[in-house]
Amino acid sequence: MPDRPVLRDVSLDVRTGEILALLGENGAGKSTLMHVLVGLVRPDAGALELGGHAIDLASYAPAVALRLGVGMVHQHSTLVPAMTVPENLAFGGTDGSVGFHPARERARVAELARRFELDVPLDAPVSDLSVGQRQRAEILRTLQRGARLIVLDEPTAALTPGETRALFPALRRLRDAGCSLVFISHKLDEIEGLADRVAILRRGQLVAVQDARSVDARALGSLMLGRDIPPLARLPAPAIPAGAPAAFRVRGLEAPGVREASRLKGIQLSVSRGEIVGVAGIDGNGQRELEEVLAGVRRATAGTLEVDGRPVAPGVRSLRAAGVAHLSGERERGGLVSGMSVAENLILKGSYDDSRFFRSGLVDEAAARRAAIDAVRRFGIEPPDPATDIATLSGGNAQKVAVARELDSQPSVLVAVNPTRGLDVLATRFVHERLLALRAEGRAVLLVSTEMDEVLSLADRVVALVRGRCVPVPDGADRAALGAILLGDGGAEAVA
After folding, report:
1. 10 Å Cβ neighbour count for 62?
2. 12 has a pLDDT exceeding 50
3. Before 383, cis peptide (omega within 30)?
4. pTM
5. CA dihedral 254, 255, 258, 261 (to 10 degrees)
6. 219 C-beta neighbours (distance < 10 Å), count
């Protein structure tokens, strides 16, 4: 199969002191184009100029780019988790200094953080920082190394709405200080009020560059996709017999949290067949803890789980054996394994007693490949080679692999946690359609999401997770009413 060019005849300029938003679907070529700019990818043809000077692409590399003032903040953190922020910024520094002077490095980072108002804890290990704090630390490291042209590769993909709102003023301050920023994204609503210009890539080609003030989200979406997307179709749910037990029930669930606000405190939830129950919340209120308990990887200190009225012992294998599948938005942490192929990831959660793919404890590679080819076709995974390393797929295609794997188990219950985090418009639509299809088939879906619009548009019933407790949300509540509850204005009584 011949390779399709990732980029085709793209010409783009970035002006001094501007925020240029680079939009496109997952796989449109956004990251590849920026990897050319920072020296990670060598193009087959074309030219690069920095500050009006032609660059020799034959010798261009990330170290050269950094010396010329070009840096990149990657989508996934490259900081060392066990080190503090000053230690990370000193590690691999470019000033040629020998040895580490803790007080001096801390003072230097503190001054840089103060100057650009990038608030970051300096004495805690990076592993204890939130995603937003790590993002700010990455920006500080890029600034400390002298970058004046900074590429931000989907910086909000894993951020909460609050962290996103906190990041944007910092980006504007960098622009006003004379830095040039390329903001890679596929979230159309983020562009308004942030970018000065917008460039749109579609299938490796630059289709438009426009003043950000002259476009709206709908027009940008059409340019990204080449067409309009029709409204999401919502099929009727099947009739459920009166008195039927809940397909999935959580009673009195308690579990330790990373912090007190995220400790689970007597969680009560029920989901019927043919129903989507949405759990809305702001990150840090117990979402991760709830996800890990329901995935079987965090031990609860109290409470029970039931499927179709029967108790289920906690644990990965017992939950999957009972028909509970788990779809995570944190693909790298809890969904997929880099270095493994698409085919391997598709059977990753299978048990060794699954006779479809295992013989005497060994993988039946031919059977796994046949199943993978079928899944790639049914779910539209690109590229369509099941031997492809999962790490090379775009976010949308990687999530399609995760969706295919979870649905292949024919679950009676799907626990979906931020299932569209980091996905573009079409990939998000794909996941939403699959959740609604499960509902129409009479399956139960528990949707835990920090995206209020996602919960409100998909769920039949909504509850809020606030400081580790479930809080009722009235039927018909709009975005404003739900937001007030999530901020703690709606009480904290348990939901039965």
Report:
1. 14
2. yes
3. yes
4. 0.75
5. 0
6. 15
Type and span of the H or E element at 50: strand 49-50
Q: DSSP states of 423-461 as a string?
A: --HHHHHHHHHHHHHHHHTT-EEEEEES-HHHHHHH-SE
Give how far Cα 105 sits from Cα of 80, 119, 144, Å: 16, 16, 11
pLDDT score of 5 more than 80: no
- All CATH 3.40.50.300 domain ranges in the chain, comma separated: 19-225, 248-489
Phi–psi pair at 376, nearest 5 degrees: -60, -40
Phi, psi for 431 (deg, rounded to 5) = -65, -45
Architecture of domain 248-489: 3-Layer(aba) Sandwich (3.40)
**DSSP E strand stretches across 154-262:** 180-185, 197-202, 205-211, 248-255
List the one residue out of 191, 151, 199 whose CA is nearest residue 22: 199
Mean pLDDT taken over the chain: 87
Mean pLDDT along residues 462-484: 91
Distance between CA atoms of residues 415 and 155, nearest Å: 26
List beta partners, residue 171: none
Alpha carbon 85 to chain centroid distance? 23
Alpha carbons 277 and 266: distance in angstroms, whole number: 18
Amino acid in position 312: V
Task: Provide mean pLDDT across the span 125-143.
Answer: 88
418 touches 329 (CB < 8 A):
yes
Instruction: Using pLDDT thresholds of 50, 70 and 90, give the confidence band for residue 92.
Output: low
Write the pLDDT tens digit of every residue in 345-354.
Answer: 998 887 666 7
Architecture of domain 19-225: 3-Layer(aba) Sandwich (3.40)
Question: What is the token pair recorded at 456?
Answer: 């409100």
